[in-house]
Specification:
Blueprint lengths: L1 H22 L1 H15 L8 H41 L4 H29 L10 E7 L3 H22 L2 E9 L5 E9 L3 H5 L4 E8 L8 E12 L14 E6 L7 H4 L4 E6 L4 E5 L5 H32 L9 E6 L5 E4 L5 E2 L2 H5 L4 H13 L7 E2 L1
Parallel strand pairs: 4-9, 11-12
Antiparallel strand pairs: 1-3, 1-5, 2-3, 4-5, 6-7, 7-8, 9-10, 10-11
Helix pairs in contact: 1-3, 1-4, 2-3, 3-4
Length: 380
């Protein structure tokens, strides 16, 4: 028995070592120190959005480090429990049995906590650590679909609430009879995008329609789109090597000082080909400064356009109709929620609608990272 327990503890310790290689506790400590310093800046709250981002990242990093410390301590406790049980076994079998029972509970708890941390190590995409913007649109199914979109919005907001994540509804378009045509909301938490991105797709609901006088079964669809919240930048750094500056004599009215000196400035941004000319100011220095401001504005606009295009590509094309669904929520003739990609399922739709979707999300992240299905695993 002791050998089997030791093998299980060794396996958990190996998983923990793999997690620490990815999460890097020393790097976490450095990040916490930097964020702590940043959060102490007296002018931090002059920009509330930036302040909330910094404090959220700091809280998340501190929480992750605390989890690693707690797990390391728990693994050491497992070893101690096993040693105590082995010592008691020959002289007091009853006490040994109690210790082995405590060890079983501790092993399960440690396994579950390690599995939760392991999920985050799989979130290594370019935007995974960003906040998320979720859009839900009603699809085929008429008024039932509009009601279904509203149910999904509540499900995700409740999920965020369970985890203590801040949310902000940005836009909602209400349907005429009931429910919503669409809604967009933010989930402001580190790794919210990486976590929720596996929820993108078409969600299908089968139930007895509350809007049908004859009580017939209705199938409704809604599309969930998840994109990363691109960090806003109000300044573009332009390396000197990326620009060519030409000076020339101003033309047009302006008096002798304007027309007889090389005060006009033309700046060409070599990577994009954007050209900005400025000759309204009296001095070359003033014109150069004004031209740089205009160039920065144009590059910022270009960056935002590229980010918008990238967001659209990340969101994908979600149709919200037959043959396109990724998860089914069935309330009639039986009760079951099943993810068609991972095989993960739950037999309590009410709990799922109340935000209990971590099992689906975790299975989705593992499936995306490894291609492995969860199998027909039921969640009560």
């Amino acid at each position: 028995m002791a050998t089997e327990y030791q093998a299980e503890i060794d396996a958990l310790r190996k998983v923990f070592e793999q997690i620490t290689l990815v999460t890097n506790p020393e790097d976490l400590k450095s990040r916490i120190a930097a964020l702590t310093e940043e959060s102490a800046a007296p002018d931090l709250w002059n920009d509330q959005a930036k302040a909330q981002e910094v404090t959220s990242k700091l809280s998340h990093a501190q929480s992750e480090l605390e989890k690693l410390k707690k797990l390391q301590s728990r693994l050491e406790d497992l070893e101690t429990l096993l040693e105590m049980a082995e010592e008691e076994a020959p002289k007091d079998p009853e006490s040994a049995a109690e210790l082995y029972a405590d060890l079983d509970k501790a092993l399960k708890l440690t396994h579950d906590e390690l599995a939760e941390l392991q999920i985050q190590t799989l979130l290594s995409g370019k935007y995974d650590e960003r906040f998320a913007v979720v859009t839900i649109r009603s699809g085929a199914g008429g008024v039932d679909a509009a009601d279904w979109a509203l149910m999904l919005q509540r499900m995700y907001l409740r999920w965020a609430e369970r985890h203590g994540y801040r949310t902000k509804v940005l836009d909602t378009s209400y349907a005429e009879e009931a429910g919503i045509k669409s809604t967009t909301f933010e989930v402001d938490a580190p790794y919210a995008y990486g976590t929720l991105s596996v929820e993108a797709g078409t969600h299908r609901l089968v139930r007895i329609s509350p809007f049908d006088n004859q009580g017939r079964r209705q199938t409704s669809f809604a599309a969930v789109e998840v994109i990363p919240l691109i960090e806003q930048t109000d300044h573009i750094d332009i390396p000197e090597s990326d620009i060519r500056i030409d000076v020339f004599r101003s033309s047009g009215p302006g008096g002798q000082s304007v027309n007889t000196t090389d005060s006009a400035v033309r700046i060409t941004h070599l990577p994009t080909g954007i050209v900005v000319s400025m000759q309204d100011e009296k001095s070359q220095i003033q014109n150069r400064a004004a031209a740089m401001r205009v160039l920065q504005s144009r590059l910022l606009l270009l960056k935002q356009e590229e980010e918008a295009k990238e967001k659209k590509e990340l969101a994908g094309d979600i149709k919200a109709s037959w043959g396109d669904q990724m998860r089914s929520y069935v309330l009639q003739p039986y009760q079951m929620v099943k993810d068609l990609r991972t095989g993960f399922e739950a037999g309590n739709p009410d709990a799922v609608f109340d935000g209990d979707i971590d099992g689906f999300i975790d299975a989705g992240i593992r499936w995306r990272a490894t291609g492995e299905k969860a199998g027909d695993h039921a969640q009560s």
